[in-house]
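Justification of computing resources. Each target in the renewal requires a structure prediction run like the one illustrated here; the chain below, 470 residues long, is used simply to show the kind of job we budget for.
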Amino acid sequence: MPSSPPAEGSRWCVVGAGPSGLAALRHLRAVGIDAECLEREGGAGGNWNFGAATSRVFASTRLISSKALTGFADFPMPRHLPAYPDHRQCLDYLRSYARHFDLDRHVRLHSTVERIVPFGDPGAGWIVHVAGREPRRYQGIVVANGHNHVPRLPEVPGRFTGTFLHAADYKSPMQPVSIAGRRVLVIGGGNSGCDIAVDSARHAARTVHSTRRGYFVVPREIYGRPADLRGERLLAMGAPLWLRRLVSLQLIDRTIGLPHRHGLPRPDHRLYETHPVINSDLLRLIDAGAIHPAGDVTAFDGDAALFQDGTRETFDVVIAATGYHATMPFLDARLLGLGGDTGPPADLAQSLYLNLLHRTRDDVAMVGLIQPDSGQWGITDLQAKLVARMAAATRRSPRAAAWLYAKRQRPAARPSIQYVDSPRHALEVEHYSYRRQLERLIAAMDRRLRHDAAARRPRPSSSTASIRSS
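Resulting structure tokens:
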């Protein structure tokens, strides 16, 4: 770590103090890069800071990946926590991580980033404009602002005259509106839609759950063990995809039953070709008649919804759990090699190397711009490690920097799984192969950085060598 304050413009800026931003801050500082983090809310935690304006979790939210596959590798979640911690336990864990690595004093709270622009030519740094403060120059930036900010609303003709919410605004069966005793329509077959439908079924007079297609549902536990850990074992054994599908389908069927056993349509895709739906209550409540499955909504007409099969039903509340647009309103998308100037389009992730690094600039990265089919924080931790090594290489190892630059020019490898073509999968990555790619790149960068560091060390003079030999 440098012992004196950095020269103007030599510091890196991390935008966002959620799991990704905290990891980026930690690893930049660990390799000797001075860095600070700008967080718009009054505390760290990002999406898990329940109650904050930018948080999208609701009262019943808990992890859909087990703690073993979610936490940071060198800072595991406490043993006393359940296999799937709730949002309060997750926030406590993230803030414990920040305290453990002495990050809090480098996080500037209530700092809303309004605009980021280049300072001169590429490589000369960036100017970050924060609301109510003087602009400041940084050598590099890590964008870790999350991708659950701008709701994606369903494109349904007509107008609903009852209460219409997006999942972004849903906090509980009582907030922002009470759904007790009311007729509720939940739109969306992802994890948020399924969890909200389960919430609603316990309070509403009637809950209808509308999905565009059939989905496989995976229980949280299979025979007393987290389902994702059973899947991880097959991956570690090198089992081919067809075998993993076969074994997983059999285990799901024996545990909660495949969709068609509950009167649901058979999925139009194979297992693993959509982001996993993890839920142990949904199918049970469907069987009990507490949740009524429905097809796609084709139109609204006053207080009624029209469905794909021609049926019509009236509702008091509609909750759309239809995802989010990935946006970065403070950074001109043209600086990332994309068209437009109001924020990155849907193909933002594909324009970056591993959804992470700019193809030609060594002074900008997007940590957390992924949706893995397993726990995310351990993977963004690896992303942050790679970014830190890129930053260190630009200062101390031209050889390592040139090697990583060359890697970033290569086309992306074909993914091992072809996901259903849907906005839902714009950021999807298969966690196991993606994690291995990051690990290999980090190891290769570490070798080059160590080699160059050794080459810079002064060799003993001939007289000193003679004394030692005598």
